[in-house]
Each structure stands twice: as C-alpha cells, then as structure tokens.
Amino acid sequence: MTNRTISHIIEPQLVIEGAGVLLRRSISPRASNEYDPFLLFDHFAFNNPLEGPIRGFPTHPHRGIETVTYMLEGSVNHRDSLGNAGKIGAGDVQWMTSGRGILHEEMPRRSENGNIYGFQLWVNLPAAQKMSQPRYQEVAANAIPVVEKDGVTIRLVAGEFDGVRGPVTEIAASPLYMDVKLAPGSSFIYPVPSGHTTLAYVFEGTGEFGEQIVESVSMVVFNDDGDQIEVKSESGVQFMLISGAPFKEPIVPYGPFVMNTVEEIQQAIQDLRNGTFVK
Length: 279
Ligand code: CO
Known about the structure:
Layout: E1 6-10, E2 13-17, E3 21-27, E4 38-45, E5 57-62, E6 65-73, E7 75-80, E8 85-88, E9 93-97, E10 102-109, E11 117-124, E12 135-139, E13 146-149, E14 152-158, E15 160-161, E16 164-165, E17 176-182, E18 186-191, E19 197-209, E20 212-215, E21 218-222, E22 228-233, E23 237-244, E24 252-254, E25 257-259, H1 262-274
Antiparallel strand pairs: 1-21, 2-3, 3-4, 4-11, 5-10, 6-9, 6-11, 7-8, 7-10, 9-12, 13-14, 14-17, 15-16, 17-23, 18-22, 19-20, 19-21, 19-22, 19-23, 24-25
Bound molecules: cobalt (II) ion (CO).
Cobalt (II) ion binds near residues 57, 62 and 104.
C-alpha cells in the first residue's frame, strides 16, 4: 500500500451567500470540474453573536445535484416545494438529491450557546440522473454509526469503515463522507480506490497529511498516486474525509443548477419562469 501525497491545499475564502450569510467556501462549481464529482464545500461557522441575527437561505431552486448538510452545532430549518419540512439538528445529516428540481429554503439557527457549526457539500449527479425524481435521506444523529479505534473516532455518514456501513446509500458517486477525529498521538490509515477524488477538510487542530503538516482550517486535495491516505497527529486533529468516483462528464454550472449543456441550463431557467420547474 502506498500513501497518497498532497496535490494542493485550499485556504477557504469568506463569502456571503443567501440573505447575508457569511461562510467559508473552499470549492465552488466550475466548468473545469477539477474536483469531480464534488462541486462545492461550504463551512457555516457563525460563532460571534455580534454578527447579529442570521437570516439564511430563502427559497431557491436546485437541479442536477445533491446537497449534503451536516451540522455539528446549531441547526438548519428546512422546507421545500414538495411539502417536506424539518430541522437538521446537531449531529444530523440531510442528503438531498435534487434531481430534476426542488425549491427550498434553509434557515440556520444558533444553538443555546450561540454557535452554528456545520458543512454543506454539493455532489454532482451523472447525466442520466440529473432529471430524476427528487429524494431525501435524512439521518438523525443517533443513527450515524460511531466507530472508535486506537484514539480515532469516526462518525460515518456514507461509505464503510471497519465493517461498519454509513446510513446514506445508493448515491451515484459511491462517495465516502466521514467525520474523523484523532486524539493526540494517534494515526489513521484509510484505503481509497485509485481514481477516486479525495479531499480532507481540516477544521480543528493540526495533523500530518501525506507527509505535510496541515493546520485548520484548510481543504487538503490529494493526488491520485496511492491507494490509501495516512494521517498522524501529535496534538489532535479533526477533519471531514470526502472521496468519490468522478463522472468525467462535461458540466455547465449556473448558480444552484449544474447541468451538462448550456441548453439544459436554459431549460431550467425557462421551467422556473413558466412555473414548470417542480412537477
Ligand atoms: Co439549497
């Protein structure tokens, strides 16, 4: 087994989205599709109540993608055009497959101690599934398996570790998505198939990734030059490990839509105008 090395490290940029929501963004949809099948990774961390009330993301559409929301603190109130409504609380995951289209609102709320901490990942859909029926996989915190081994604690959302499978399944990119925490002095080795895009979002502490020291907050992008990743930490580190099979299809991103052609984007805009976006 050989360790994957680091291709590059992305420093998340502060951006304002929705109705004035400040967040840290590491990757966003681009025609170059460098992180195929992953499109976007946002980190909600509004931990200063002086920032004032958080409005959130009022009604907006999605087509052609999946959005994965994972909260560690605080919550997101969610409501959509299909009549679904709910709250994504601390430790919960919502895996939303937009397929041909949904209109939804997402409203982050502070926890009792004033914090909001969570992530939203966008995963692409292959051409054949872009116009599929919308679907949700909602997983409450207590249904996410926690594996503890040799100082490593893993909350497993999608994928497999040590014979345990995450609850989110049947996703086209066959992704791995897990929250990995290393106690001081521990190490972690995980096999990743050759050819799978692999990222690690380091959000707490400091660790050694592929022989490079990485401090939070950083997005690590691995090269496709080995069959496992190895992480060590002297002082403790926590990161989201993200890996999946690329679709290798051209993409045309346009705001909350990611399709394969310009015509399909025009169709999405027209469907919105005509009121035929959501069937
Ligand atoms: Co959305």
